[in-house]
Amino acid sequence: MLKRFNNFKKLAADILRLQDSDNDLLFSFDVFDTIVHRRVAPNAIIETIGRELCTELHARGLNISRDVMKARSDAYLEAAETLVAQGLDTDAHLDDLALPWVRILAGGPFDGDASVAAETVEREIALEIETIFPNPVMLSLLSELKLRGARVVLTSDMYLGKKYVTKILSANGFDGLYDDIFVSADTGKLKRTGRMFGHVLELTGVTPEKCIHIGDNFISDGVMAQRAGVRALVIRDKVLSSRFDRLEYDYSRQKHDRAWKGVCAAAYAQAAPGVVGTPEEAYGLKVLGPILVPFAHAVAARCHDYGITKAFFFAREGLLLKQLFDAVAPLISGAQSQTESHYLGVSRLSTFVAAMDGARYGLREISSALANTGHFSLRNLVQPLRIPKAKLSEMACSVGITDVDAPLPPNFLSWPPLAAFLRNSDFMAVVETQAEKGRFNLVSYLRGVGFFATDRVAVVDVGWGAQIQENLAVALENLADRPQIMGLYLGLNNIAHLRKTNASWVDWTLCDQGHAEWYGWAALEFVFLFEVMTRAPHGTVVGYSDDGNGVRPITKGDSEESRQTEAKSDPAIANVQLGILDYAQHYKTAARIFEIKPEDMMPYARSTVARAVRFPTRSEAAWISRAKNVSDLGSSEVVAFSDGPLRLTRPRQTVNLLSRSFWPYALVRQKLGLVGQFVVAVIRGVRMLPPSDQQLAPWIVWHEPSPRKSVLQPTATTCIRNELEELGSSNMRKMQDAGRRESRRVLLHQLSAPLSLADMIPLNICYRAVRVIARLKKRHVPAASCISVRGLIMRENHWNRMIKISRSIKRRVQRLYIFKG
Q1: Which residues does the chain have with pLDDT short of 70?
Q2: 696, exposed or middle or buried, with CB in 10 Å at 0-12, 13-18, 19+?
Q3: Taking the chain, what is the end-to-end CA distance rounded to the nearest angstrom?
């Protein structure tokens, strides 16, 4: 009997029915691609180990004389000769082929070759364990069979041998769920020749009609088992078999298309079938992980290139970024010194005060304050100073301003009462006092955390205008031992370039307003997505205090209304961050297997940004729009991501609502779907492009950072416990637990799948429309850095389907032509 299944659940149900009907049955299960599965194509593991082996041989001064895979094949055949000589099947054990493989690659034996072979085996088994996940249906089935007292054995055609297969199964939860395991590398008998089944029947004492074998290979597990008289159940699960085919395609394509490595990493990180989580966790795993983790990888690479030994991550976005950096920084090979990462308790507010110039509250301070509010009042204008309202009103009344919350006139910069207020002696005294105290506390805090210990430091944030970095540079500009500050950002706008100097440089990773790349520019259309989803679950830094043991940052209290409003979103955000951190763990292994460099990931990251911002799904638009953001420059204004709903019966109101929305794509998705998002994306995309006779980024001097100063002797630093990081990490864990309790549970497999053809086609059509309109309007024509649509067609097997359809149409046309003729 040979029976075929296309679904593991149906297979499991049938096996349980068979066990119910006969308690004396022996169930024989195949191992690989039946009860456990890999996250990559099998050859990818062998090539990775071979590449690392070659690196070790090179380090020993040995020249590699053969191709890695060809040498492995020859070593396999050499090791198999012993079994063949005994009249057994052609197979070999990993322990037996490792040493010949090493010697073939090295061109012959050498001192220490046995130890190199042993280390190679250990690495291969460790990588196998890391890349394998259990089939949840089969794990549950074997557990149920164990409870029912059924006899279960495992059979595998595999070169790893029983002791290593057992390790793999143990790591995946199969301990105690089977009675014995038979592996061809030990027995010298293969399923594909049929001899393994006779061997199993002989050792178990079971007659063929009482044995049922289950596996995924139609020939080895099906036909050969049937010929041996064993009943065979062959499984070809649609989901997992399709996934296997895609992994094989990814592995092949990434060898000649480095941009495809992003797809490989995303596919490797995809949740295994049956894994349960929250929609927010899936969003972090599918969307933000492929964007932020390569950014952290790029930061580590830049630190190595710039010779930076200290990287400081700005609160609050920096807590997650620091965790990602710590996870992926070891991927940078050849680093002579590990870059230290520090969570820095600074904010726009704390550095704003420290950067004020004496008693003057000038244009720089005014523009910075008003850039964070939509209501231009005197109170919001000086909000960073946190002057009590009663005292502020008293000073304002002395110059004729009766209401500090009233809107300022359109020409307020030349309005005499405002000029008089800025010259008010009491106000100037407040400014001078706060500036002096703020600068002293900030510098003391920075010295305590080692900011001045080296001549060049990195500061890291998501972006966008480098305001905190500029404030730091201004506050420290008169100090002789100040370090050169290198700002490393996910994306930058033109303002950031205007702020950079040789002593305070800025670098971008994903997108830059001065480079017209249409996919990455999507991040600049909705910056709040990245700011909020990376936010640490603690209040913003509002100042510093000295308790005698060092200066420490002070955060906004949890009792403040604005913080309470913000905290309502913390559980969902923490779950998103959980998915991002999960992606980072998988990314480390994927980067090792596929030799991923940060720049390889950028096309996929930009494609993901464009999909996330411009074409969010209805569910994404709904729950993300509920998140709230609060200005951290002294104001308590709450920013809503989308105002709605749209009223299509009122066109003018609809247009106004879309024009002032932070995320218009979420608004139009609810009412107009993909068509509405497409129209908005084209209109906004064209508007972002300046006329072709203008520069993309006017007034920017494209200079290089100044060379490093002579290396300073490290200065003494005060060891201060980073209580802010501890608070953020502790709260993050609490919020993750709360988020899991509050959110609904879903299967993560489909929600964490890599970008698909359906994701990329709207973006691709939209991009082409923007290019055409840009040419007609004589604007800058944007470039594209994204993954290949043709590659996705091939990956999802649409190409073969299209060929079949076209041939079918051709045949019908020919028949019609013949009939008419």
Answers
A1: 333-337, 374, 631-645, 648-649, 698-720, 798-821
A2: middle
A3: 51
